[in-house]
Amino acid sequence: MPSEGSMASKSPTSAMSSTGGSTRSSAFGGGSPVGDSIGMRAPSTPGSGLPGGEGESGLLSSVMANMQDDGEDEEGLVAPTIMSAEDIKAEEARRRSNLAAALEEKGMTSVFDPGPASGPSSGTAPAKSTFDISTVPPDGLKPFILSPAPKNVGMIECRIIREKQGLGKLFPKYILETDSGVFLMAAKKQKNNKTSKYVITMSKSDDTGKDADAFLGKLRSNFLGLEFVAYGEGLNPKKIDSSMSQVHALQLARQEMLAVQYSSSLWGTKPRGPRKMGAVIPKVQPSGERMVCRTLNPDQDGLLALQKANNLGAIQQFHNKPPKWNEQVGAFVLNFNKRVTQASVKNFQLTTNDDPDTVFLQFGRVGKDVFNMDFRHPFSPYQAFAICLSSFDYKLCCE
Length: 399
Known about the structure:
This protein has helices at residues 57-70, 85-105, 138-146, 246-252, 298-301, 303-308, 381-392; strands spanning 78-80, 156-163, 173-178, 183-189, 197-201, 215-221, 227-231, 256-262, 277-282, 315-320, 324-326, 331-334, 348-351, 361-365, 370-375. It is α+β, with helices and mostly antiparallel strands. The chain is 18% helix and 21% strand. The two termini are 40 Å apart. It contains 7 helices and 15 strands. The strands form 2 sheets. A 12-stranded antiparallel β-barrel has the order 2-3-4-5-6-7-8-9-10-13-14-15. A 3-stranded mixed sheet has the order 1-12-11, with no helix packed on it. It is globular, with a radius of gyration of 22 Å.
């Protein structure tokens, strides 16, 4: 089984082989329909936290202005869930109950019982489960960005800041940093391309990827903006000399790090409800190493081809969690646990069919040009950022 840093081939033109894995339905078609009730209307209850009601005209104007500025359709909005104190307590009780049940199955207890080497009797406090990206050394930052997030750190909370002032409005720049302000990477939409193309680097100033040390990869879409593929360093297979040996050519080819697909509507029909999306990444093994998807024939052996072939031994699939219609709010809602504060068609959460209650990536608006992005294992920071970049891009048959 090839892993990150190693290479094995199931065919002369592909560096990704399949392994055994549990069967699951496709993430790209995954998730139940959201429903036929659509649209957004002002709630009748004042103080609900969303547009509508007396004294909230300013908030309504702000939300509508952001929608108009981004070209968003109100029928596809996804709003953060408005939770009362009782709802929050009930949700917390449900989580604690599920956690206790999961621990009991493994013969563990949900109550911390310090042993002789820790706790008050020894004068040593239990270690806190925290993760500070600022502690990653400079020479280890690039491997960290490209590798799956550590398993034991939970959700890593970040934010994306969009810069699109002046002449650069059509080709914005996106900055990813942690909640504590640690810069991770930036992406710039490139000009003079037939399809959308983003260059992703570890530099705030290099918008073209010419700095090889800072360059991370590219995100490209198809013509309709419904399929996106994120690549790592390396050459486009089409630009590799065909007279070169396949072994050498394969070593020069770029990796496919991620693919995203959005569902489309029929030509001439208006999309109904929020977006439906799926993502696929090379499979991450129990050791934490990620399989390598490097091929000279992406149409046959790339991530989208593997997904269509349902090759679950080589890939992992995710789909967006379907929002639920809330009559009181008058919109589709998702519980972002206070990490998203404004409604937007860009808001989403990714989960799996095997573990629908676990959110592996969530993204949503908190300001006009500020969005929160939270992710966990098996996504890498680079993969999570690329998925969110695809959400910003316009989709011809999707909205």
